[in-house]
Amino acid sequence: MLATITRMRLLQIDSIHVVARSPYLVLHARLGDYDPQWLDDALDAGRLAESWAHEACFVPSADLPLHQAWRRQRSTHWAYKHAARMHGEHRQGMDGLLDRIRAAGAMRAADFEGEKRGAGGWWSWKPEKRWLEALFAMGELMVTRRERFQRVYDLSERVEAKLDPPMDKSLLQLDHDALRRHFILDSVRALGVAQARWIADYYRLKPTVTDRELAPLVASGELLTVRVADWKVPAYVHAEHADLLAQAAQGKLRGTHTALLSPFDPVVWDRSRAQALFGFEYTIECYVPAPKRTYGYYVLPILHRGRLIGRLDAKAHRSDGVFEIKALFLEPDVEPTPSLLRDVAKAIAATARWHGTPAVRLTRSRPSSIATALRPLLRES
Fold it and tell me: Which Pfam families match (predicted)?
């Protein structure tokens, strides 16, 4: 699990749990039937840390000082702007909260009395919750563990003391150019094959990365340039992937895996990249008003042997043990062969069992014949 997160460099956090919460589902797509407690335990043990990266993310603990150093460069990010304003308006209350945690130890937002969160996001939280989030963004607090996915906050120095490996504080001294170079190389390594315009989004770098900026990294041999059929611009591969690149060029790198992806999986979170790589148009529709949704509220892309072949609108009914597929859609150019349908059925059944909702209920599909063909395969899987 740790190797998987290290390979991706970050694991985005999102609290929506219509199906499994996103970080657990991202890992399941790569690891299969693993114990979600591993993620919680790794955070508690200091082998992972929480930080703002792409958005709020789990990151390898060895990378934490890089993100802390980069905080100074991310002052325009909404979380930091809100935190600075909050601190200016509520300095006394936030200082008092810090004193309480210093004396009493780690605390959750639930440990404070107050109104429940409403529909208005950050600003409808009770004051202490807003202050905890602001102090986290400012670096005064860190997340030491999670309890039922709720953040447990402690003083940063106490969390840093338990990191494994120990924090390399020399990385905090890296200047802007060195940090940006590091994050660019890390992004290309994680993305596999990347156009310049995709790179900045991985760590939310500003300004956008350009071919001109990448030229010195190509000249030094750290990045390789490649031409991809039908792309009018160059693409880049990290030098560590030279062997995989050679296999791909010889047609020897074949996709074998089928999995359901989280809407916040790095494979699909960049719409332009998903379109260019897979010809797959994808929007996270949980943020779209219901009348304007095309596919559903929480739609999981289906990865099959290196292609994104479709998507399904899923909901887990945990108390009933039912994994409901409200609708399943195949892309128009996908042929529903028997082997493809078997692989899709196995991936759905495996996700449902891992989630603790082993009974799969498929309501409809497009084309409609797919549901008829899949139902017996789901029962067999």
Answer: AlkZ-like
Determine the Cα–Cα distance for residues 72 and 147; give it in Å rounded to an integer: 30
- C-alpha to C-alpha distance for 110 and 142, rounded to whole angstroms: 16
What is the DSSP code string of 291-308?
Answer: GG-SS-SSEEEEEETTEE
> What are the tens digits of pLDDT across the range 211-267?
999 999 999 999 999 999 999 999 999 999 999 999 999 999 999 999 999 999 999
What single-letter DSSP state applies at residue 102?
H
CA pair distance 222, 238, nearest whole angstrom = 6
Euclidean distance between CA atoms 92 and 241, whole angstroms: 51
Q: Provide the CA 205 distance to its chain's centre, in angstroms.
A: 16
Q: In sequence order, which ranges of the chain are alpha helices (DSSP H)?
A: 2-8, 22-31, 37-44, 64-70, 78-89, 91-104, 127-138, 156-160, 176-191, 196-203, 211-219, 242-249, 271-278, 338-355, 369-380
Amino acid found at 106:
A
pTM over 0.90: yes
Q: Phi/psi of residue 60, each to 5°?
A: -60, 140
CA 311 to chain centre: 18
Q: What distance in Å separates the CA atoms of residue 298 and residue 22, rounded to the nearest whole number?
A: 11
**35-57 as b/e, with b when 16 or more CB fall inside 10 Å?**
ebeebbebbbebbbbbbbbbebb
pLDDT in tens, 198-208: 999 999 999 99
pLDDT value of residue 212: 98
Instruction: Spell out the long-range contacts of 151-160 with Cβ–Cβ below 8 A and sequence spacing 24 or more.
Output: 151/50, 151/108, 151/109, 152/106, 152/107, 152/108, 153/101, 153/106, 153/107, 153/108, 154/101, 154/105, 154/106, 154/107, 155/98, 155/101, 155/102, 158/106, 159/46, 159/49, 160/64
pLDDT digits (tens, 9 = 90+) for 336-371: 999 999 999 999 999 999 999 999 999 999 999 999
Q: Give the chain's largest Cα–Cα span.
A: 65
Cis amide prior to 289 (ω within 30 degrees): no
